[in-house]
Amino acid sequence: MVKRLCIIAFMQAWACSSAQQIGAIKSAYVASEWTIPGSNDKGVVVTSTETPAVIAGSSNGDTDVSDKSNLERESVSLSATNIDHETSRVHWKPLLKGSTFYLGVMHSFCVATEPSTRKALSNNVVGGYFKSLGAMHGWSDGDSYYENYLGHPIQGAVSGYIWIHNDSRYRSVQFGGDRDYWMSRLRAYAFAWAFSEQFEIGLISEASLGQIQRYCCAYGFVDHVITPNGGLAWILAGDALDRYVTVPIENRTRNLATRILLRTVLNPSQAFANLMSLQYPWHRENRATVSQYDGTLYSRPVFPGRDRNSGSIGDSPIAPRAEVTAAVPNVYQLGGLKCIGGEGLFGIRLTDFWEWTLEVSGCTLGESLPRNWSGDSFNFTLGPQWTVHTIGRWNPHAHFRFGGQKITEEYVDPIKQRQVLDSLLPGQDPNDYRYLFAKHWETTGFSLSVGGGLDMGLNRAFAVSLINVDYTRSWLARINGNDFTHGLRVGDWSGIAIRYLVTLARFLSKADCRAKIHDVPLAVDP
Fold this sequence. Notes:
Elements: H1 2-31, E1 34-35, E2 45-46, H2 65-88, H3 92-113, H4 115-120, H5 125-134, H6 145-166, H7 179-201, H8 206-210, H9 222-250, H10 256-265, H11 268-276, E3 306-307, E4 312-313, E5 322-334, E6 337-349, E7 354-364, E8 373-387, E9 394-412, H12 414-423, E10 438-459, E11 462-474, E12 486-498, H13 501-507
Helix pairs in contact: 1-2, 1-7, 3-6, 6-7, 6-9, 6-11, 7-9, 9-10
């Protein structure tokens, strides 16, 4: 549900933006000289910093101001149309090529390294696909902690950067509180989620090719939550390092090896995305190559009605209209065991202090269980959250949510497992006989969550979660003597709150969708 709302909001913003771009880009075009680079298609580059106080349509001598204005409006309209085509469209053909190439690389890796995936290639595609989807449940998918919470977020970041590379309207923006930057990363986040779902359960996916969800223990939802949310965190971190570390050092040295090392090592996700788009790993969208960069960053037209420095739109309120929060990792004390995992939270603003939230979280119990045991916890809750948004940095919050919790445990008898595997004939699937050496337990029940925390806002679009404390009360049956009815989850410096939807909500308002050709002002303040 969280991801569906994000993708719907993304599509609405995209459709609404087409009405704004005409008037907005024309206004920027008459404010200074803009040119489209010949072959690099980077967007719009500022070639002159002089801003005329009055454009050519102003009164001059005994010229008819009305007639002159009409002529200038028509001229600006034609020029803006050409610029709009280059600076606002998504390059779908190269986007699909890069995404397909990346998808092929990942599936090829799975086929080359996973015997179960190679074996499943001979299964019935349609029947096996729907069996895989029907078998999905719980949180854990059998992968290691680092694969789930490090590898998959990097995968999400790579797909996000592939989108950014082909989103010509926003791809040259830099990290900061600027509204354009957060709109760009919102669009990349939506695409990263869609790409992740395609890789996991799409028509050309692990569910259709390898059909891994049919078998133990790859049927959890951890990747569906962690991949896009963790990927967004990697993108933000890479962008911040690029702006505050890589660019300043590049401005001080022209050594090619140093520049290449900085661009690739400090942002490996973008480097790999560049390779998937058949670019050099050290390619950057907002500046020239390592040999040609001279300190000049590519720019794009400034859209009227907002301050690029503050990232605000008109009289946008301090409280965001919606928030997306990702927390990785967090520690959940549950039934006397330590459960390590993550969470994704989506909230829609109801009033200045209240929002309605939806949380999906989970963790793995494997690190706390004895050898040959595995288990996980999967939570899905929704409810109100009270948050104080101020002009300062500190944002306290408290919540009450209700929903459900599912606990699973499994024990594999190593002696029986070896006996069963040794007795199988060639071609027989070990998963078909798993019940002979493995025992599975699970319990699902109603759950309540009460807690609070403190966020530190870095700007109006981005905050870091300093501390979060959640107490959960669930009505669950005991599993192997463990009581999971009470739980305490504590996270510190473990989450990021993305508030870029505050600009999106304002952007979707009717007032912001009324840009027309005749609305372009003739006078521009210097």
